[in-house]
C-alpha cells in the first residue's frame, strides 16, 4: 500500500463523478429533499423535532450505501478491478481510495443535509451543531464502508441492491425511529445494541436534545468509527487477485 | 535451454502440466508449452478452447488447480511481475466516464511509470485526436486501443493480449500488427490470442488450441510443413484429423529448422527423456 496509489485512486473516483453531474445532484440534493418532505408531512405536529435528527442519520446513510456499493461493483464487472489487481495496486489502496473519495462526498452531502434540516426545516438543535455534523459525517461514512463491504459479496448490481433490505432495513426498523430502543422487546433491544446505525441515531438525538455529555456522544462516534474500519478491512480482505 | 528461463535467449513463459477447472469442468487438462522471448506468439483456437483461461493463468489472475507456470523466471502472479507483465482483456477494461488521457494518467500512477509515458503510449496507439474524449464515447475499436495503450505504460517485458484485433477495420488491424512487430523488435514478448486463423501468419510462433489441449506449438512454416497444407485453417483441421499434435519446442526447432519430427515431447520439458 502506498499513499500515491491511494490518492491516485481517490482522485480517479472523484474525476469519474465529476463527469456525471446527475450523480452529484442525487448525492447532494436528494437527502435534503427527503428531510424536507418528512418535515412537511409533520408540519402541523411536533413529530419532526423528535424524528428529524434520525432522518439526518437515515437518508445520507442509505444514499451513500447505494452509491458506493454500485460504484465498486461496476469496477468489478467492467474488468478494471482485475486490471488494477494485476498491477502493483494494493487492495488497501483500492478500498481506501474509494473510502476517501466517497468520504469527501459524504462530508459535502452531510453539510448540505444538516444545514437544510436546521435552517430551512427549522429543526431545533439544543446541543452543538458541529457535533451534530460530526456524527452525521461518521454516519454517512458508515454507509460508504458498508457499501464497500456489501459489494464484495455481490456478483451483480441486481444482487447488491438486494443487500439493501438485508443490511439496511433492519437497522432502520430497530434503530429507535419508530419507538425508542429501550421500549423494544428485550431480544430486539439486544440486537439493536449490535447495529451501528442505532449508535448514530442515539448520538444525533442526544445532540439535538442536548441530553447527554459530549464524551457520551464521542463514545458513540467511536463505535461507528470501529464499524467503518472493520468494514473496510474485511472489504479489502475479500478482494482476490486470483479468481476462479 | 529451458532452465535458463531468465537468459535473454530463453523462454519468457514456461508452462508445465497446467490443470485449471472453471465452473466444474476441466478447461485446461495438463497443458505444457513455452513462449520464447522477444517473439510474437499467436494463441489460436475456437471460442471456448481455453485461450483466455491460459492467458489469465500466465498473468496470475486465474485460480490454478495444479501445474507450474514460470514467467520471466518467476512464478506466475509474483508481485515483482506486476510491472513487468501487462494483460489486455478481451473486453476493454477502461473507465468509460474518464477521458482517454485521464484513464492513462491513473494507470500510469498505479504502475509508477515515468510521467512522459502517457503521451508516448497515446502517440504509439495513435489516440492523439481522441485523447480528451470520454472513453465511453469512443468506438469499440478505439476503446480497445485505450486498453492496449494502458498496457504499454511502463514498458512491460511481456504483453498478454486477448483478442486485441477483434472487430477492427482491416486497415487498423494491419497497423496494430505493425505495432506488435515494432514492440517485438524492441525485445518485448507478445502472446496474442485470436480466433481468426488469418492472423496466424503474422506471428513468429503458433500455439493452436482446441478443447483445452494443444494441437500445435511450432512456427507457422513448421505447422504448414508438418500438415502439408498451405493455410493455418486447413492445418488446424488436418491436425484434428491426424489426432497427433505438432509440438516442437523453439529450441528443438532452431536445431532442426527443416526436420520433420516424429517424436512429440512436450515443448516445456524437451530435455527430459520420455
Order of helices and strands of chain B: EEEHEEEHHHEHEEEHHEH
* Mean pLDDT reading of chain B: 85
The number of helical elements of chain B comes to 8
Q: Unreliable stretches of chain B, pLDDT < 50, 5 or more residues? A: 1-8, 253-274
Low-pLDDT windows of residues of chain A: none
Q: How helix-rich are the residues of chain B, as a percent range?
A: 25-40%
**Which class of secondary structure composition applies to the elements of chain B?**
alpha/beta
Please state the overall shape of chain B, judged from the principal axes of the Cα atoms.
globular
Got a strand count of chain A?
A: 0
Question: Helices and strands of chain A, in N-to-C order?
Answer: HHHHHHHHHH
List the strand order in the largest sheet of chain B: 6-7-8-3-9-10-11
Descriptive report:
- The complex is a heterodimer of chains A (244) and B (274).
- Chain A has helices at residues 3-18, 21-41, 47-78, 80-85, 91-120, 129-152, 157-173, 186-192, 196-209, 214-237.
- Chain A is mainly α.
- Chain A has one domain (3-238).
- In chain A, α1 crosses α5, α3 (47-78) packs parallel to α6 and α5 packs antiparallel against α6.
- Chain A is globular.
- The model of chain A has no long low-confidence stretch (mean pLDDT 89).
- In chain B, α3 packs across α4.
- Chain B is α/β, with parallel strands linked by helices.
- Chain B is built from 8 helices and 11 strands.
- Chain B has helices at 51-59, 100-111, 117-124, 140-152, 170-185, 220-227, 232-242, 250-255, and strands at 11-22, 25-36, 40-44, 66-71, 74-75, 85-88, 158-161, 189-194, 205-210, 213-219, 246-247.
- In chain B, a hairpin with a 2-residue loop joins β4 and β5 (74-75).
- Chain B starts with 10 loop residues before the first strand and ends in a 19-residue tail after the last helix.
- Chain A binds chain B through residues 4-5, 8-9, 11-12, 15-16, 19-20, 78-80, 82-89, 241-244, and chain B through 22-23, 59-64, 77, 79, 82-83, 85, 87, 89, 91-98, 102, 106-107, 109-112, 134, 150.
Amino acid at each position: 500500500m502506498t499513499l500515491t496509489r491511494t490518492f491516485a485512486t481517490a482522485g480517479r473516483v472523484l474525476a469519474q463523478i465529476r463527469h456525471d453531474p446527475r450523480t452529484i445532484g442525487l448525492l447532494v440534493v436528494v437527502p435534503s429533499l427527503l428531510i424536507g418532505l418528512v418535515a412537511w408531512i409533520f408540519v402541523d405536529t411536533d413529530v419532526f423535532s423528535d424524528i428529524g435528527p434520525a432522518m439526518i442519520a437515515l437518508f445520507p446513510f442509505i444514499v451513500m450505501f447505494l452509491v458506493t456499493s454500485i460504484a465498486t461493483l461496476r469496477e468489478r464487472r467492467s474488468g478494471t478491478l482485475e486490471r488494477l489487481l494485476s498491477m502493483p495496486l494494493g487492495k488497501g489502496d483500492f478500498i481506501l481510495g474509494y473510502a476517501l473519495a466517497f468520504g469527501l462526498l459524504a462530508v459535502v452531502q452531510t453539510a448540505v443535509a444538516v444545514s437544510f434540516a436546521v435552517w430551512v426545516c427549522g429543526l431545533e438543535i439544543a446541543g452543538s451543531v458541529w457535533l451534530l455534523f460530526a456524527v452525521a459525517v461518521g454516519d454517512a461514512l458508515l454507509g460508504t464502508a458498508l457499501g464497500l463491504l456489501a459489494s464484495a459479496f455481490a456478483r451483480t448490481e441486481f444482487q447488491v441492491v438486494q443487500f439493501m433490505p438485508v443490511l439496511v432495513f433492519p437497522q432502520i426498523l430497530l434503530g429507535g425511529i419508530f419507538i425508542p430502543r429501550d421500549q423494544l422487546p428485550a431480544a430486539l433491544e439486544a440486537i439493536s445494541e449490535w447495529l451501528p446505525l442505532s449508535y448514530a441515531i442515539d448520538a444525533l438525538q442526544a445532540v439535538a436534545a442536548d441530553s447527554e455529555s459530549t464524551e457520551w456522544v464521542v463514545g458513540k462516534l467511536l463505535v461507528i468509527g470501529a464499524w467503518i474500519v472493520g468494514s473496510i478491512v474485511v472489504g479489502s480482505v475479500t478482494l482476490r487477485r486470483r479468481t476462479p | 535451454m529451458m532452465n535458463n528461463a531468465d537468459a535473454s535467449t530463453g523462454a519468457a513463459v514456461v508452462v508445465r502440466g497446467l490443470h485449471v477447472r472453471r465452473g466444474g469442468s476441466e478447461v485446461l487438462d495438463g497443458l505444457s508449452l513455452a513462449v520464447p522471448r522477444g517473439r510474437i506468439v499467436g494463441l489460436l483456437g475456437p471460442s471456448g478452447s481455453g485461450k483466455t483461461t491460459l492467458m489469465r493463468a500466465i498473468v496470475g489472475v486465474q485460480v490454478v488447480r495444479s501445474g507450474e507456470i514460470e514467467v520471466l523466471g518467476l512464478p506466475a502472479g509474483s508481485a515483482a511481475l506486476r510491472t513487468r507483465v501487462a494483460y489486455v482483456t478481451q473486453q476493454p477494461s477502461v473507465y468509460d466516464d474518464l477521458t482517454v488521457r485521464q484513464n492513462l494518467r491513473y494507470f500510469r500512477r498505479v504502475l509508477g511509470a515515468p510521467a512522459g509515458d502517457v503521451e508516448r503510449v497515446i502517440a504509439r496507439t495513435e489516440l492523439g485526436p481522441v485523447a480528451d474524449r470520454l472513453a465511453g464515447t469512443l468506438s469499440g475499436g478505439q476503446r480497445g486501443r485505450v486498453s492496449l495503450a494502458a498496457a504499454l505504460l511502463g514498458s512491460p517485458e511481456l504483453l498478454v493480449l486477448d483478442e486485441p484485433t477483434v472487430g477492427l477495420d482491416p486497415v487498423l488491424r494491419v497497423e496494430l500488427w505493425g505495432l506488435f512487430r515494432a514492440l517485438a523488435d524492441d525485445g518485448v514478448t507478445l502472446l496474442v490470442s485470436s480466433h481468426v486463423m488469418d492472423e496466424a501468419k503474422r506471428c513468429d510462433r503458433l500455439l493452436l488450441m482446441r478443447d483445452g489441449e494443444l494441437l500445435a506449438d511450432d512456427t507457422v512454416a513448421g505447422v504448414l510443413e508438418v500438415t502439408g497444407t498451405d493455410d493455418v485453417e486447413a492445418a488446424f483441421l488436418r491436425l484434428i484429423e491426424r489426432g497427433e499434435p505438432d509440438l516442437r519446442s523453439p529450441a528443438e526447432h532452431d536445431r532442426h529448422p527443416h526436420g520433420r519430427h516424429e517424436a512429440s515431447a512436450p515443448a516445456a520439458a524437451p530435455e527430459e527423456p520420455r
